[in-house]
Amino acid sequence: MSNGLVSLVGAGPGNPELLTIKGKRRIQEADVVMFDRLIDPSILSYASSDAELINVGKLPHHHKVKQSQINQMLVDFSLEEKKVVRLKAGDPFVLGRGGEEAQFLKVNGINFEIVPGLTSAIAGLAAAGIPVTHRDYASSFHVISAHLKKENGSLDWPNIAHQEGTLIFLMGMENLDLIVGQLLKNEKSADTPVAIIQWASQWRQRDLTGNLDNIQAKVQKSGIGSPSIIAVGDVVKLHDEINTVLPLFGKRILVADNGSKRLINGLRDNGASVVTYRRGTNEKTIFDIGKILNYENIFFENFPSFETFIDELNEKNRDIRTIGDTRLLVKSTKLAKMIKDTGIIVDDVIDAEELAVLDNVAIIGGAGSHNLGKDNFFKIYQRNTSSNNNLDFDTYTEMLFISKVAVTDLMDSIDVEQAESIKSIKALAMGESVQELLLSQGFTNVKLVTPKTNEVINDLLEGKI
């Protein structure tokens, strides 16, 4: 029996950049992605726009989808010859259900693979400046689940308490009182350092340190909760010495995925959490290029209109020489330079007023053009949107729009309720035309920023925006 492939993928501790290269590739190739609740939604943006995204996340005492159902879904999708990613927080084989899922797939004759991930037990502590081992403090570490099956019974507390290495408890916040009580009862010193890291490696990470004597009171006062890692041991002393907080930590910025990584990487390198959303794609429409070539002037509204025009020429076994003495016009020096980089030099740069009085000109553009309806306008491409309904808009501190098309790509790809909800989030507009569009669409917190990457990052660093 032929079937697809199930990839049990570890997503790492939370930060999307800590996903492995193979894990990212498997998500990009997947027909179906079944993900847990602790997965940062931005990781899902790697999935194809055609992929089916299924939230099978679990909360304490509440399973959104039962494990038996998850197991069967993996089998059923695979039998439909689909590529399935079971995306799990951390590493799929460290205190998760990855082993059980692998067993079920094996029994049912399903092709599967394991794609390891960085376990939060190690990487999560590192994100808070806490090494699990250190020559001066600990030569071993012990990862312990504080959330066991009932049939497993209680933990061997006397053995755990007398271990000299670092104790790392996962899924333990609900049982913090039990953990502290049992360690003290079994003669662990009350002065033993304790750290709690919530949402480790993510933009919302919170750290709390204390000792076995005072950590419960500190937790109650701070309100820190699940999901958290609890670390017990002398390595916690290194938190204040090693931990580094980057200047843009705490900012979560939504940016269009435009293929250029300079802006995105620059923000991330300074500590911001950057989430990219899917862009629309251009699709050529049916048009008569012969009619366009009858005009003495051709005005390109944007670079996609130029690309589509040249592509149509090539399909008709023609090239730029076909236009003869026809003048090529654009609206900005930036667009003129982009076209020049392809080897073609435009004849002139004109503004809207000059265009309005120009005779014998074909205006070519897309569906969003303000020239729609004019007799001399040719819509030669249309914009197809990709859904972004998976984005969690409650978490963004800023949205950064690099162009007008980036605005429409987002607004056209989410539902009406989401579109209304984001209008109060601070919107950073890279250019006056972008600012005008955002204001016209009802955004209430719009800030004009320079269209230059370095200056945008510097303004954020200096708190100007």
Description:
This protein has 465 residues and is α/β, with parallel strands linked by helices. It has four domains: 5-117, Tetrapyrrole methylase, N-terminal domain (Cobalt-precorrin-4 Transmethylase, domain 1, 3-Layer(aba) Sandwich), CATH 3.40.1010; 122-242, Methyltransferase, Cobalt-precorrin-4 Transmethylase, Domain 2; 252-280 and 386-461, Rossmann fold, CATH 3.40.50.10090; 282-384, Rossmann fold, CATH 3.40.50. Helices cover 30% and strands 23% of the residues. The protein is built from 17 helices and 23 strands. The chain has helices at 21-29, 67-79, 98-107, 120-126, 157-161, 176-185, 215-222, 239-242, 262-269, 289-293, 303-315, 333-340, 352-357, 404-411, 416-421, 432-440, 453-461, and strands at 5-10, 32-35, 52-55, 58-59, 62-63, 83-88, 112-115, 141-145, 166-170, 193-198, 206-211, 228-232, 252-256, 273-277, 281-284, 297-300, 327-330, 348-349, 361-366, 377-384, 398-401, 426-430, 446-449. A six-stranded mixed beta sheet has the order 15-20-19-16-17-18. It has a five-stranded parallel beta sheet with strand order 3-2-6-1-7, with helices on both faces. A five-stranded mixed beta sheet has the order 8-9-12-10-11, with helices on both faces. The chain is elongated, with a radius of gyration of 28 Å. It starts with a strand and ends with a helix. Residues 149-153 have low confidence and may be disordered.
